[in-house]
Amino acid sequence: MPGLIKKKIKNVLLMYPPGKVLRGHFQHCESPLGLAYLAAVIRNDFDVRIIDGRAKFQTITSRKSKWDYYGYTLEEIIRKITAYGPDVVGISCLSSFHFPEISKLCRLIKKNDQKIITVLGGTHPTFLAEETMSKNGDIDFIILGEGEDSFKLLLQKIDTGQNYTDIDGLAFRKNGSFAINPKTKFIKDLDVLPFPAIDLLPLKFYEKKGVPFSITFKSRKNASVLTSRGCTSKCIFCATNNYWGNIYRGRSAKNVLDEIEVLVKQYGIKEIQFVDDNLTLDKKRARQIFQGIIDRRFKVYWSAPSGIAMWTIDEEMLELMKASGCYEVNIPFESGNQEVLDKIIKKPLNLKHASSMAEKMKKLEIQVNGYFIAGLPGEKKEHILNTFDFAKKQDLDCAWFFIANPVPGSELYEICKKKGFLKEDFSFEDIAFDYANIETEDMSSREVEKLVLSQFNLYLLTLLFRHPIRFFKKFFTMIVTHPVMTIRTTLADINRIIKQ
Predict the structure, then answer these.
(1) Which of 145, 117, 116 is nearest to 129 (CA)?
(2) What separation, in Å, do the N-terminal and C-terminal C-alpha atoms of the chain show?
(3) Looking at the DSSP assignment, which residues form a beta bridge with residue 228?
(4) Which class is 11-180 in CATH?
């Protein structure tokens, strides 16, 4: 058909962009599971390679920027692309703040070889497909949401010269314009997917230099595992529901355990980090996974850095978690005020039950951390202070406090746009969860920033002086394996306190 791309495809390069964090923050680098799944799905039809742009131990800073960039430079990535000679380059854009560099990279790719087909996927282009295609003519396609089936079909149709304009969840260019097919189809049975192609990832780098999502870890030989997709909660600040089609799907316990067995026996993995949005949402399945770890004698540590649905947790579940190797859980309390949870955040969490279960975790010697978020429309200063008081009373091993931001695809963004709560200079590409972008009649963005920063640093100091041994024990592995990064992060925090 006229106006459509037709090209024989042999080599496909999948890429995670170079790292980018607020200056002084920990520089994460863990397995990009989304790309590893894509690679596993297409590797029987095409030659595929993965570049993790973060997997080089170098930091690139600019005094004019609030960001630290790390990993490979764009020029180094272009040299790698040229050496491989791909027909298609697929790039993951999970966070909006990555898009400026990804946009530059697409221009460099096309400048170097106009025939290379560029494809973007991830949260930012999924929810901002029209804006993304309009901003950069060097982006050929966008895969919306869950990408395995759509991406594979796109490659097959281009390779065989077929019409791809009817592919579900595809944004594409046609006759000088572009079209967007909404995402309507999702994989019902996740067990049909092959295990992620982690053999294509720089595993030695992750083992020696990587910093997993959780920051802390028991063993350098750790791996991320995703056992489910989606979430049943309707938290207004989160885009997960929309991204995964507002449905929850879990892999079978056997399928999960078989993957862990491969990781343990073939790759020598000693720690699993379950990165599900809600690992225990299906209580029966969760128990089967934990019991299976025991029965198969994997002898691994495991943690749940993304958090768990506390309304699914009881004492029996916790004892099984501990027996199967659980050593740390992050609890997404979100707020210390039940009214804020019920009426503003819309999270089905009961603080009394969550506190009770957190206490049981501590008795089982499971490390307990908390996630909190502040600065939502309708939230007042006293609500935020309630949250910090609540966190202190929980006597957690640590807690993280984030400032609410209107990310693409979230209900929060729609609320802020409709009510005029967005800062005048608001840009998705500048979102960072230490900075506020919401202005309401209750609190200005500056007031939220000052309050959260001052209270967070006071919380950390209190935690350090009350439990110095526990504090250093938690971060010991990180201090030993990444002393320079730990020092830089500490100095950055001190500098922010001084400038406050």
Answers:
(1) 145
(2) 60
(3) 250
(4) alpha beta
User: What mean pLDDT comes out for the span 318-346?
Assistant: 96
Q: What is the pLDDT of residues 137-168, one digit of tens each?
A: 999 999 999 999 999 999 999 999 999 999 99
Across the beta sheet with 59-61, the strand order is 19-22, 67-70, 59-61
CB atoms within 10 A of CB 106: 21
Alpha-carbon gap, residue 261 to 257, rounded angstroms: 6
**What average pLDDT score do residues 333-338 get?**
96
Strand ranges of the sheet holding 11-16, from the earlier edge strand across to the other edge: 47-52, 11-16, 88-92, 117-121, 141-143, 170-174, 177-180
DSSP state, 65? -
**Total number of residues shown for the chain:** 500
Residue 321: both structure tokens together:
């978690």
Strands lying side by side in the sheet with 326-334: 222-225, 271-274, 301-304, 326-334, 367-374, 398-403
Give Rg (Cα) of the chain.
Answer: 23
CA-based torsion, 236, 238, 243, 247: positive or negative: negative
- Element at 82 (helix H, strand E): helix 74-84
Please spell the DSSP secondary structure of 37-60, one letter per residue.
HHHHHHTTTSEEEEEETT-S--EE
At 146, the amino acid letter reads: E
CATH number for the segment(s) 212-499: 3.80.30.20
**pLDDT grade for 111, boundaries at 50, 70 and 90:** very high
Query: What does the block give as tokens for 100?
Result: 């400026």
Domain ranges of the chain: 11-180, 212-499
Element (H, E) at 381: helix 381-394
How many other CB atoms sit within 10 Å of the CB of residue 85?
A: 11
Q: Given this model, what pLDDT does residue 465 score?
A: 78
Contact 349, 312 (CB under 8 A): no
| β-strand pairing of 88-92 with 117-121 | parallel
Q: What is the DSSP string of 195-211?
A: PP-GGGS-HHHHHHH--
Q: What does the longest C-alpha to C-alpha distance in the chain come to? A: 70
Is residue 490 scored above 70 in pLDDT? no
Helix (H, G, I), strand (E, B) or coil at 142: strand
